[in-house]
Amino acid sequence: MEQKRKEEKKHLVEVEFxxxxxxxxxxxxKEGRYGSADAEIIQNVFQEFLNQTQT
Amino acid sequence: xxxxxxxxxxxxxxVSGKAxxxxxxxxxxxxxxxxxxxxxxxxxxxxxYKEYMSTSNTRRAHGFxxxxxxxxxxxxxxDRPMFCILEMADTCVTDLLGGRCKASRHYPEGFTPExxxxxTNCQDTIAACIGEHGLTPDDVHDSCxxxxxxxxxxxxxxxxxxxxxxxxxxxDLLALFDTLSVPxxxxxxxxxxxxxxxxxxxxxxxxxxxxARVESLEQRHGPRQRTLExxxxxxxxxxxxxxxxxxxxxxxxxxxxxxxxxxxxxSETQYSGLQAMKKLLAAKDDGECLRTAFFLWYxxxxxxxxxxxxLRLI
Lengths: 55, 314
Prior knowledge:
Radius of gyration of chain A: 14 Å
Oligomer: heterodimer
Low-confidence stretches of chain B: none
Number of domains of chain B: 2
Structural class of chain A: alpha+beta
Radius of gyration of chain B: 24 Å
Low-confidence stretches of chain A: none
Number of helices of chain A: 3
Strand content of chain B: 15-25%
Number of strands of chain A: 1
Strand order of the largest sheet of chain B: 1-13-3-11-7-6
Structural class of chain B: alpha+beta
Distance between the termini of chain B: 43 Å
Largest interface: A-B, 33 and 35 residues
Number of helices of chain B: 5
Helix content of chain A: 55-70%
Distance between the termini of chain A: 27 Å
Mean pLDDT of chain B: 92
Largest sheet of chain A: none
Order of helices and strands of chain B: EEEEEHEEHEEEEEEHEHH
C-alpha cells in the first residue's frame, strides 16, 4: 500500500524550450505516438529514453 | 570513370607549386613522381575568390582525413562542394588539421632573414603561386594536406610519421565548379622524410561522365548553397583599416530567441530516473536534465543525420 502511494506521487518539472526546439515537439505531435500536449510528449519521450538507457 | 583529353601536364620542382584554373567537370591529377612527398593544396572559386576551400567545413563533413569518394567543401558562408575525390591512393594519408607550415616555424634553427635566410614553407609557396592571380599572402588558407602522415593523441598533440607515398601514386580531384587550384610541394622537413621530391600535375578536360557526376552532386547538395544574393553586406573591402559603421544594426538569425516553460508531470519512478540521470549528465537542475534527455532521445531515435556531439548517456 505504501509502495503504491509512493508510485502515485507526482513531481512537477519545469522545462524550458526555445522556438527552434518547438519544431521537434510539433513533429512528434504530428507523429501521434507520444500524445498531443507538449508536457505529455516530453513525459512519454522521457519514459522511452529511460527504458532505452536502463536496459 | 572516363575523363576528357589531357590539357595540362606540369612537373613541379621542389619546392614550388602552381596556381592553375581547373574548370567545372575537369579533373586535376596530382602524382607522386618519386614518392614520399607531402602536397599542400589550396583552392578558390575562379570567379569569386572569397569563396575558397574550407578545411573545417570539409572535416565537419568527413572527419580529419578525407578519402576517396569524399567531397572537399568551400567556406561555411557558401557551403558548397568544390571537389569530389575520384581517386586516392591508399598511401595518401590526408590531414585537415595541420594547416600549413610557415617560415617562423624554422626561426629557432636560425632560418631568419638576418641569419641563414628563411626556410621553405607552404604559406610562402602558396602565396608565391596565387600572386600570379592578384591574391595576397593573406588570402592563403589552411591546406588540404595530401600524403601528410600526421597523427594526434588523446590530448590533441600532433606528431608526424614517415611519409608513405609511393612513386606513381596519385589523387584525382573532380572540380564541381570553376576553380583556381593550387597544389604545392610542401617546404617543411619531417612530412617529406627530410628531402623534397617533384610532383607532377595533370588536368583532364570534362567528359560526359565527369559532367554527369557534377550534375548529380549539384542536385544533391545545391539547395544548401548560399550566394552573394543572400548576403546583407556584399562588397569586398578595399581598405585594410577597419572602421565601425555607427548605423549598422546586425540581423541575427532568430534573434531574440524566444523560450517558454513547459510544466511536465513525472511519476515517482520517472523522477527517480531523472535524479540518477542528473548526476550522470552533471545537469544543473531537473529542467535542464529533462531537456537534455529529450534531445538525446531525439538524436538517437529520430534525427536523420545524428549530431556529432559526444554527449551520451550510454
